[in-house]
Amino acid sequence: MSYGPTPTTSTPVSSSTTTSHSSPYCASGSYADAAKKRPSSSNQQAKSLNPPAQLPQVVHQRSTSPSNISGRQASACQPATTSQPSRYCASGSYADAAKKPPSAPNREAKPLAPRAQLAKGVHQHSNKSSNISGQQASAYQRSTPRTLYPEAKTPSPAAIRKEINSAFAILRHQNFTDAEKAFRVILKKYQGNLSPFNKQNTTIGLARALKEQTNEKQLEAYSLLEALRLDGTCNKFGASTIHNLDLNLSLCEEALGWHFAAETRLLRLRRKSTNAYEKTLCKPSGYYAADITNARLWQSMGKHRLAETLLLKIKEELIKKLQSKPDSPAAQKLRKYLGKVNMALARLWQLMEKYQLAENLLLDMSGKHPDDYMDILCKPTKCEDIDLALSVLWRLMGKYEQSERLLLNMSNKRPDDSEDTLCKPSGNHDIDLALVRLWEETRKHELAEKLLLLMIGKHPNDSVKVLCKPFGKANIDLALVRLWQIMGKFKQSSELLLNMCGSRPGASEEEMCMPSGHCDTDLTRARFWQMEGRHNLAERLLLNMGGKHPGASEEILCKPCWQQEIDLTLMRHWEVTGKYHLSERLLLNMSGKDPDGSKEILCKPCGNHDFDLAQAMLWEIMDKPEWTVLLLLNMSSKHANDTEDSLCKPSGNHNVDMALARFWGRIGKHEQAERLLKQGCKLYHSNEFEQALLSQSAGQEGFMEMISHYPETINTLLATSIHYFNLACKQIIDTGPESGQDNLHKALEIVESALKKYPPSAGAFSQKAHCLRMLGKNEQEWREWFDRAEAFDVSRAYRAKTHFWRSREAAALQKLSNLKE
């Protein structure tokens, strides 16, 4: 068996983004006695694993469990105390494994009289009245106890286990609503007959199904698992000894955006101290499920180097074990873990834009080689996950033909099939949605739209009312919303979004801004309103999602709701609308910092790269360059007094390096920015770094000579368009608007050529909008292209415009505005 290539260079470790990961590990096996009470010392150890203080209020306000979560179930979300709570004080059906409902027969109660005496009394009474013979009386005596006291039928353990396995099968097929119903039925039907192990297993299964649904159900999942945790014991690290409980609890915390609580829990589960050295943190624990989950969490937190180092060490350890004992009983399980590690590593390298490493690994997992013929490369394997990952990677690498052929082969189609055949759904939503996304990027919008509509039983010729009726699966409905936005069908996109949220036509602002309960749908709606300029609606919806009111005090408004996506979107919304003081205060609270702290403390990374990068961007917009550079250098483990070689060496996190290079470019340190970008191109093999390097040099002397050494790509054409645009802005500022017209038309011509020759990009859409605006076209025309760019890449609205030519553009626009006045 091939184990996939491992990079030859060692990876240094450095510290430190709907769709959370579904846990692939079934809850099975138990190493604890469910009847044992946890010692008070274990409760003390588990204190830091509790969620933020806001959670109890949320749980009390949104009681979502089948039987209202009260008593200890609600308090499960509160910080643990050293005293041991009573096991018999909870009022929910999930709180007490030993307690029977009132309607269940009490099998432990003694009979009113012994069975033999009772039967004898009945026999004597019958003899007097009917003169029953001895043999008849004896028979009657034997049957009387069963007749008068029929025993309740106790379900066999095998029958219970069969139902539990069926529920887990539904869960594995990602039918989360059906799985939830199945687990609830089991808990209610067998509540007095479930063994501690089966009760634990079923409750964990229910929590996993709830975790993949709405925010309220995620909170319920968390509460159920915390209540179950109180019935078990903890090891000396503070981790629950109930098998897979803390693993699934950490996934719930990650889904709710509580990354630090999830990280602490996983480290304890891996028997690591939270303040251990990075070398210790990245050493496999032997509990590979927890190790892999920890690596994925670090990836979500932006700690890419920690995640990469841990995954590579797990892979190395698994390969050694398999090579030493390939036929051992544990070999099959180890191979399974190795496949999970390889897949996690490929996705991480894709995120880090180490595309070549990711491609080589996925091809090796497929039994293929990069030099194979196209027919071999695009032939599906027996593993759908590998094929889908490879098709997505090829799309990101610009290998559109290979990506399309692989997806079509997975759908049993051919590139030369008719449109009707190509757009016929394969029955596999993951494959069909991947094909939609590919066609979307390659400008085959009609094919993408037709396939999406056919997937939900509609046709492009249907009425708008029919087309805008939600299908019910958020991933498909949101894909259609996104596609219509890119196609410029904003009215249909808006109507579908409102219908998805249950808003009726002509609804009041208050009704329109009520959350639907599906976080991704609500966030998409908020971003759409931002794009339309309806900032009041967007802000009110975001505040409602966080349980806040627009009229609340600044202290309450800036208090995090501890759902990362909601908090970050609100912070960025305030940033876009110029409410910088609210944005800064919320972000500092999210990072666990006091707004009144010293500069040295505030510029220390909090450990969450998303928060830290957002903070650096915000300070740059607020014109705090010293704070920005200090935070970015601290994130890179660098110091302002370091040598230039050290300063320009990539840190290993491409997002941090990109932010630092762009900042240097903005403040005029072009040489340092260029050196860092060049080294970043070599390390990350990233299109983003190449584009940034070209854009950094645009408008400067020697640009055309430099660009001549690059093969033509959409990046080189876009950079050339920016170059002429920048020259035009300089001419407008220096000599007047007429002198820059030729260069402006060249810039527009080149970017339009890029859009015709290559698949569209958000950058190309945006550049065309810039050109049209500078040429004096009407706002509706250039605004449409900006909207397309934001629909294509929603994160663009929140990026700092740090290119040095932006200030030049602003000055040129101001001069044109003054001339019109």
Please provide a written account of the structure:
Helices cover 61% and strands 0% of the residues. Helix 15 runs parallel beside helix 18. The chain is mainly alpha-helical. The protein has 44 helices and no strands.
Contiguous helical run count: 44
Radius of gyration: 31 Å
Largest sheet features: none
Low-confidence stretches: 1-149
Count the strands?
0
Query: Distance N terminus to C terminus?
Result: 74 Å
What shape does the CA trace take? globular
Summarize the helices and strands and which ones pair or pack.
Blueprint: H1 40-45, H2 55-61, H3 72-75, H4 115-130, H5 134-148, H6 157-172, H7 176-189, H8 196-211, H9 215-229, H10 245-255, H11 259-269, H12 278-281, H13 288-300, H14 304-324, H15 331-351, H16 355-365, H17 374-377, H18 384-396, H19 400-410, H20 419-422, H21 429-441, H22 445-455, H23 464-467, H24 474-486, H25 490-500, H26 509-512, H27 519-532, H28 535-545, H29 554-557, H30 564-576, H31 580-590, H32 599-602, H33 609-621, H34 625-635, H35 644-647, H36 654-666, H37 670-684, H38 687-697, H39 703-707, H40 714-735, H41 741-757, H42 762-774, H43 779-792, H44 804-820
Helix pairs in contact: 4-5, 6-7, 6-8, 7-8, 8-9, 8-10, 9-10, 10-11, 11-13, 13-14, 13-15, 14-15, 15-16, 15-18, 16-18, 18-19, 18-21, 19-21, 21-22, 21-24, 22-24, 24-25, 24-43, 25-27, 27-28, 28-30, 30-31, 31-33, 33-34, 33-36, 34-36, 36-37, 37-38, 38-40, 40-41, 40-42, 40-44, 41-42, 42-43
